[in-house]
Amino acid sequence: MKFLVQKFGGTSVSTESRRKFVVEKVKAAIDEGFSPVVIVSAMGRKGEPYATDTLLSLLDDKFKEENKQATDLLMSCGEIISAVVMSNELNKVGLKAMPLTGGQAGILTNDDFTNATSTNVDITMLSDITSKGYIPVITGFQGMTKEGFITTLGRGGSDTSASLIGVALNAHEIQIYTDVDGIMTADPRIVEDASLIDVISYSEVFQLADQGAKVIHPKAVEIAMRGNVPLVIKNTMNNCSGTLINSIGDSNSTRIITGITYLNNRIQVSIKLEDNQGNPHYKELLDIVANNDISLDLINIFPKEKIFTIDSSKKNMLETIFKNINIKYTLIENCSKISVIGSRMAGIPGVMAKIIKALSDSNIDVLQTADSHSTIWCLIESDKVNEATNILHQTFQL
Ligand code: ADP
Ligand code: MG
Questions:
Q1: Which atom in ligand 1 lies closest to the alpha carbon of residue 213?
Q2: What class of enzyme is it (predicted)?
Q3: Which among 71, 159, 178, 323 counts the fewest CB atoms within 10 Å?
């Protein structure tokens, strides 16, 4: 039996009329001779009754922090509702569907509640029910500990579920259905003329996803890559061919830059030697911060200054640490990190210079930069991030 994993995101299953498109995609898979395995997210986005954020808003912050296992039980409800409702839609057109929780589908995880990692996928149940002609409709975003407690896999976790199941079943491909035509050169909500990428490598998508492009979760890319199962991103509402993600990418392309993305909520931290003369902790500052589980990014070390960025959620923690060891520092809040990504930029001179020139010509201050063989990062103020993304998109004629 050749399996096709089809994952449908929150907007794809949010209304009855959209769920009809989902049914069409499942029927098409069967017509092509595949055994479909469906994975669903919770219905709709924040504000809609069964969306994950809506469920979470029923709990207070203290409870959520202190009762992660219970929080997971609540958060898993959105996908459970969605899987049963979707099974109903499939039944209406004469297809036999069976809703399953992540645990029932065999996704076993550690007990890191609210952000669990899969330890193993046991396909016994899936093999059994598909051989009996059922279409499994699996709740995305969730797994189960070996003791039987429901866990969730972190934000965007339904993509991860799709990759876990796709790799375990050695599926023909993993199709991620969403509300855009595929992976675009930039978020189409920000850049109106962003263009569709037909084929792209796992590593470039990983970079895009890891640096903010919400269209697929980086963990899902990593799992599919390790299992060498192709991922395809498609629009639920049309028949566009979408974006194929594989290990080779587009070998015919001569484009230096593949895409642009950004991450908000960054804070730039600067610590000057002259403000901290005689403080024994100055030397080992980065270690102290990292050992407190604050991840640092864009790290620049100069003889007289250390600069790095953190996520804004870690601000209070960082300030407490610095207060305790009497470190003087300055912060620039509300920053965004723009990433210009392209595996062919290695060895091509002038890409960074072109970026800096384009941004400074538009009076956008670049607070910090960094580069690797496939990505250039620039830190700018968040209120300029949409403008900067559009300018760079134009500069590289994406
Ligand atoms: P789903 O609910 O289907 O999982 P998501 O909201 O997680 O959907 O992901 C789809 C969204 O990703 C799109 O609506 C789009 O705004 C956003 N997005 C960000 N960057 C990109 C990109 N480079 N290409 C396509 N979509 C992107
Ligand atoms: Mg998503």
A1: 20
A2: transferase
A3: 323
The answer, yes or no, to whether any atom of ligand 1 lies below 6 A from the CB of 187, is yes
What's the pLDDT band for 50 if we cut at 50, 70, 90? very high
CA 390, CA 372: separation in Å to the nearest integer? Answer: 22
Ligand 1 in reach of 48 Cβ (< 6 A): no
Contact predicate 329/322, CB 8 Å:
yes
Q: Is the pLDDT of residue 397 over 90?
A: no
214, 240, 341: residue to mutate for ligand 1 pocket, most atoms within 8 A of CB? 214
Token representation of residue 32: 């092509």
Ligand 1 pocket, residue 354 CB under 6 Å: no
Confirm or deny that 7 is annotated as ligand binding: yes
How many C-beta atoms lie closer than 10 Å to residue 172's C-beta? 18
Is the minimum distance from the CB of 42 to ligand 1 under 6 angstroms?
no
If you average pLDDT over every residue of the chain, what do you get?
Answer: 95
Q: Which strands, in side-by-side order, build the sheet including 368-371? A: 297-302, 305-311, 259-272, 330-341, 375-381, 368-371
- Ligand closest to Cα of 190 equals 1
Q: Which residue CA neighbors atom 1 of ligand 1 most closely? A: 9
Q: Is ligand 1 within 6 A of the CB of residue 46?
A: no
pTM: 0.93
Residue 343 has pLDDT above 90, yes or no: no
> Looking at the domain that runs over 259-395, which CATH code has it been given?
3.30.2130.10
Backbone angles phi, psi at 382, to 5 degrees: -60, -30
Give the closest residue to 102 by CA, choosing from 85, 86, 125, 133: 125
Q: In this structure, which ligand is nearest to the CA of 181?
A: 1
pLDDT band at residue 258, thresholds of 50, 70 and 90? Answer: very high
Dmax over CA atoms of the chain, in Å, equals 77
Nearest CA to ligand 1 atom 21: 187
In the chain, where the domains are located: 3-246, 259-395
